[in-house]
Amino acid sequence: MPLKAINPTTTNAWKNLQQHFDQGGKDINAKELMQSDPARAKEMKIRWKDFYVDYSKNRVTHETLELLIQLANEVELSDAIEKYFSGDLINQTEGRAVLHTALRNNAEDIFHGEKNISADIRKTLAKIKVFSTAVNDGSWKGHTGKAITHVVNIGIGGSDLGPQMVVDALKYYKTDLDVRFISNVDGDHVMETLKDLDRETTLFTIVSKTFTTQETLSNAQTVRSWFLEDAPTDAVEKHFVAVSTNLEAVSNFGIAQENIFPMENWVGGRFSLWSAVGLSIACAVGFKHFNALLEGAHEMDQHFKDQPLEGNIPVVLGLLTIWYNNFFGAESEALIPYTQYLQKLAPYLQQGIMESNGKSVDRNGDKVKYQTGTIIWGEPGTNAQHAFFQLIHQGTKLIPTDFIGFKTSLYGNKDHHDKLMSNFFAQTEALLQGKEEAEVHSELKAQDKSPEEIERLLPFKLFEGNKPTTTILIDQLTPKSLGSLIAMYEHKLFVQGVIWNIYSYDQWGVELGKQLGKAVLKDLEAGKEVIHHDASTNTLINRYLD
Ligand SMILES: O=P(O)(O)OC[C@H]1O[C@](O)(CO)[C@@H](O)[C@@H]1O
């Protein structure tokens, strides 16, 4: 069954939320509420396994939360969750189920229509295990009999961002293999990646769900030609493997049948790192850690599926986004992990969240009259503090921010970790508390400033406070906790999409640019003056051709 199409703005909860917002909700001051109700921090938190999620620094009261839960109930979120996990065709515009959760469910048999897909999932997983183990232990040899030392993943979007983020995030757990990524069709990017590689010891994984993506196919061709400059044609089978749903196109490319890792249409590209797309992850960190990543995600799936809405992490996070996006008019959300290992989390989630929820037509095919997808951005703390935190603290925009931190670091080094985490805690405190006039005044006075100077400087040194943050404190960055964290955001964006009554699992918005790109490429290849585009595009192309 498809998801029900319920316009959220027609629900009683939405109207009540609007009224609640108008009649005081917009002025909710989390700092004051924290002072007047010390129980708030205990009540507005969710403790789950090694996660501690504190959302008490948000502009919400218990009433706000009740109304948001009422909204989730009125749009039948629980029914939608059930359909998501049961393999219903919830990606209706593409006629597909959304079953990436099945990829990490080793406990049950999952059905896609009548078909039990778990056997195939386990078969592919076993193939990943055998292959990644052979590459790591040196029993997979290159064509001259040497073991593999480098793996290069060629893919883009979901066939790149997820594996790349995870490989970077789990660097601490890595094997001896050097795993790299080529994504952009920028030839310089390709050559920079290849320039110090030894053909005899390098393995290329070509990853493309469709195997029609221009960037990936061009890069794969270039890399293949580079490889064959100094290797015989039959060496390809020892150095090229592919991951795709399009088995025919892969074999036409010249990849041996046994070197193809299949994936299925019910896995969206941006949710595919759990599938054979994660082959480079298994190579980089070993199968054991890849499996732990899947386990962590599965545990979050269970939590999301079974936990009542009030205590359900992805649900609460998703509802907070709705509150800020649709009532306060906040346009973006920042994600600040306090670990350098997660430096690629924001770019990864930009695709996950913005490609999913950047939609303006609802599930009835009507133009929405409310805001949908948020803009996602972020960088690791503390670097972020020295780059854009000024705007979060004192700018004019409301930017709800997730702070993600870990109780222990991986190398120990407590001295550094205490410094890192002191910033983590202090920033959310500063964003909540702000700094009032009296405090600024006495600080300036203590610096022996004259009364005139104090008066002049005072407005610039004030901090409003009441800037919303959610703290996600996790015990340690492990493959398992990373799996749970990623799944948490996957489910959060699902919640938002259900409430906004949009289709989160298609991505038609990327097609037009691709189509026009093909046409422009023909013009560039023809090399003749163009006149059939708009005036600006004609001028630019002609200048390029000149
Ligand atoms: O894996 P493929 O088919 O090469 O697609 C790559 C990416 O391109 C997109 O379709 C968007 O351009 C993504 O959704 C997808 O992850």
UniProtKB/TrEMBL annotation:
Organism domain of life: Bacteria
Keywords of the record: Cytoplasm, Gluconeogenesis, Glycolysis, Isomerase
Record InterPro entries: G6P_Isomerase, G6P_Isomerase_C, Phosphoglucose_isomerase_CS, SIS_dom_sf, SIS_PGI_1, SIS_PGI_2
Active-site residues from the entry: 355, 386, 514
Enzyme Commission no: 5.3.1.9
Enzyme class: isomerase
One MF term in the entry's GO annotations: isomerase activity
Catalytic reaction equation(s): alpha-D-glucose 6-phosphate = beta-D-fructose 6-phosphate
The keyword Amino-acid biosynthesis appears for this protein: no
UniProt cross-references to PROSITE patterns, sorted A to Z: P_GLUCOSE_ISOMERASE_1, P_GLUCOSE_ISOMERASE_2, P_GLUCOSE_ISOMERASE_3
Subcellular location(s) of the protein: Cytoplasm
Pathway: Carbohydrate biosynthesis; gluconeogenesis; Carbohydrate degradation; glycolysis; D-glyceraldehyde 3-phosphate and glycerone phosphate from D-glucose: step 2/4
Family membership: Belongs to the GPI family.
Function summary: Catalyzes the reversible isomerization of glucose-6-phosphate to fructose-6-phosphate.
Name of the protein described by the UniProt record: Glucose-6-phosphate isomerase
Organism from which the protein derives: Gangjinia marincola
